[in-house]
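Dataset card, provenance and construction

Sequences and ligand SMILES were collected as paired inputs. For each pair, a complete structure of the chain with the small molecule in place was predicted and serialized as structure tokens. The example below shows a pair involving manganese (II) ion. Curators did not alter the output after generation; any descriptive sentences attached to a record were derived from the structure itself.
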Amino acid sequence: MNNNLSKIAEVIKQARSILITAHVFPDGDSIGSVLGLGLALESFGKKVSMVMQDKVPQMYLFLKGSEKIITPQEISAQPDLIVFLDCGDISRAGEDWIDSLVRDRTVINIDHHVSNEYFGTLNYVDAHAAATAEIIYSLLSELDCSLTKEVASALYTGIVMDTGSFQYQNTTPGTLKIAASLLENGVDLSAIREYLYQNKSIKNLRLIAAAIENLNFAAGGKIAWTYLDYKTMEKYQALSEHSEGIVNYPISLENVEIGLLFRETENGTVKVGLRSRARFDVNRIALLFGGGGHQQAAGCTLAGPLEEAIKQVIGKTLSIMEEE
Ligand SMILES: [Mn+2]
């Protein structure tokens, strides 16, 4: 069950030391939400620790305050409140560090994934919010917090990235109103465009080329899938962040209803990204393999090997497509 945002604002106001975290392999929304809330709470005089298990990808380092995001090993303060952002369950924040920390502490869970497990002491999950950053915007207005340029830019980045620049189905009139208000509060649109879209590394383009080379089809062209094996990642010395966005290529083709990217990691596990148009719910497929996400964008991880992961996920995708 959801608590209301005013209750959550109340609990935040009472806390002195607050730890804010988000999911592993951080994306624009998780980083933007952590920074938006973290910087705003710092301005209230709170002791804030912004913690992420994985490094902030290069492309987001332009956001002011990103240098304050620390790893779990660097945590020095004992928080009296822990806030999870953009995490469907506790383990999304990582392994080995978070479980002992949440024990006996108040946990606030703010998220927009349909698959959210309501694991917090207080929960606010809005699956209709395009981004967690959208919810943070509303929370900050509950807190009567005026938006600085830094906070507005962080939240705007989260919304831009989770809506595919306001293209995806999740973009609502409310999303655009919030974006408008963020622009009014000093977001520098051309700086954000350059950092997010005109700042790609050659490694990213090499991986796109490889993914297009590996493109396959099923269900008479309604499913398009591709893969990046670890050999290819190694060949270009690419990190997982260099494969960001590639999952959108298969779904960009005409007549394709579901697009998938399979990426083999160093330890042999396979990360699967799924995208769909309005007609199919890829969250259902991701859930079958212990993952989750949204109707039109979801993900999961399989043990591997790569060929076996492809066989299993494409098999389930075919049967779900037949059902719907
Ligand atoms: Mn998100």
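Derived descriptions for this record:
The chain has two domains: 5-197, 202-323.
The mean pLDDT is 95.
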